[in-house]
Amino acid sequence: MKLLFPGSFDPFTIGHADLVERALKLAAKVVIAIGINEEKKPLFSTSQRLEAIRAYYNDNPAVSVIEYKGLTVDAVRDNGCDAILRGIRSVTDYDKERNLADINRSIEGVETVLLVSSPAVQHVSSSLVRELISFGRSADTLMIKTFKK
Question: How many domains does the structure of the chain reveal?
Answer without folding.
Answer: 1
